[in-house]
Write a structure and sequence with these properties.
heterodimer, A: mainly alpha, 67% helix, B: mainly alpha, two-stranded antiparallel sheet
């Protein structure tokens, strides 16, 4: 068997091409089939192999089917619980809500007036609603300071304050007497005497 | 099975990626593109049909099962490197050392070949057995380079990288291999 040559060819490339063309060694059909079958099997196992396997199990085996459904149910419950916990954590704490809103509220809030059912529902729904900006606003609002409760024994009051109080009381007595309100003046005098036995206020 | 033309798109790397994604047809295209070249390379080197079959199958199966991807060298170099390494491993297990020197043969065939001049035209023998016989007469390292160039269709720099040989050595081996094969496979032809 012979092959006509191209006189323009320098020989090297032509010889290489000649080998590519006339080297007739090739793998057998059986070898081709084995390799291609292996490739098909491998590719069928690659993407979605888990789901394919799962579908096969569910279809063929009733016991495993029950296990699969149970697993899915447990997974669903676990996810639901996780979701609920996450939601709960994201809500503001009731203690914080009360402590932040209490100082800003009026006396009426401390002693709430009776309200209708619809008002109560509306108020509770508003309290349950998560409104982060509202919470931030409440937290940033200045908290009014309450006056401290009076001490049972007025040991801390300075003398100047006591004198001022006495002077104010005497002035009030004088005013009542001057206006002819003798009864009110006498009542005040008796009360002051009771509170301050050391005060000499009979002359006013 | 028919060979796909070399210019068929998509690239080997894309086909391999598709196969890795589960597309078996991508592998068939890849296999058709390289099956003959790879088999001829292996058979040309080892000269045993049974061993060529075994190495050929092992190479493709390792590629099918691998989780890796071809690096910058590309799929073709990766494929031939895998096949070549398996053959070398086999030889080592057999206690056979690869040929280390073919200087004598290179010097013998370093004479310029005037066989392709228009005045003295030659034609190459087409018979497959004769081709194999001529290949068998090449020193192993020359045969390796020639087969990577002819059947692997690798560029010289790719062959140098794959065989871990300097580029000039690769060029030299290829030149000597071609000269010897030309001498072995040409017959005088009458000029009309």
């Amino acid at each position: 068997m012979k092959h006509d040559i191209d006189p323009r060819d320098n020989g090297d490339t032509r010889l290489i091409e000649h080998f590519r063309r006339y080297d007739d060694v090739a793998p057998s059909a059986e070898l081709d089939a084995r390799i291609l079958a292996a490739a098909r099997q491998q590719s069928s196992q690659r993407p979605g192999s888990f789901w394919q396997h799962l579908a096969h199990v569910v279809k063929e085996n009733p016991q495993r089917r029950a296990m699969v459904f149970a697993s899915v149910a447990v997974l669903g419950i676990a996810l639901s619980m996780t979701w609920q916990i996450a939601e709960y954590d994201s809500k503001p704490s009731p203690v914080i809500e009360q402590s932040t809103s209490a100082p800003a509220s009026s006396d009426a809030a401390e002693y709430p007036v009776p309200q209708t059912r619809s008002q109560a529902v509306e108020r509770s729904s508003n309290e349950l609603r998560i409104e982060t900006p509202a919470i931030e606003q409440r937290l940033s609002r200045p908290v009014p300071m309450k006056a401290p409760a009076p001490l049972a024994v007025d040991l801390a009051s300075p003398p100047a304050t006591k004198e001022t109080e006495k002077a104010a009381a005497i002035e009030e007595l004088k005013r009542l007497t001057h206006e002819g309100k003798t009864k009110e003046a006498e009542t005040l005098r008796q009360r002051l005497k009771k509170q301050h036995p050391d005060w000499d206020i009979d002359e006013y | 099975m028919h060979e796909s033309p070399a210019e068929v798109t998509p690239d080997d790397e894309i086909l391999f990626s598709r196969f890795r994604a589960g597309d078996a047809r991508a592998f068939e295209s890849l296999y058709q593109r390289h099956r003959s070249g790879l088999y001829r390379y292996l058979y040309g080197l080892c000269r045993e049909r049974e061993l060529a079959d075994e190495l050929f199958q092992e190479t493709w199966l390792s590629l099918i099962r691998t989780k890796g991807r071809p690096r910058q060298a590309g799929f073709r170099s990766w494929l031939y490197r895998t096949a070549r390494n398996r053959l070398i491993d086999h030889w080592r297990k057999q206690g056979r050392l690869p040929s280390v020197s073919d200087h004598y043969d290179e010097r013998l065939h370093a004479v310029p070949d005037n066989g392709a001049t228009p005045e003295r035209q030659f034609e190459f023998i087409r018979d497959g057995d004769r081709l194999q016989q001529a290949l068998a007469q090449l020193p192993e390292e020359q045969r390796d380079v020639f087969l990577l160039r002819s059947h692997g269709e690798l560029e010289l720099n790719e062959i140098a990288e794959l065989t871990q040989t300097p580029m000039e050595t690769v060029k030299s081996r290829l030149r000597y291999a071609v000269n010897k094969l030309r001498r072995l496979l040409t017959e005088p032809q009458e000029v009309h």
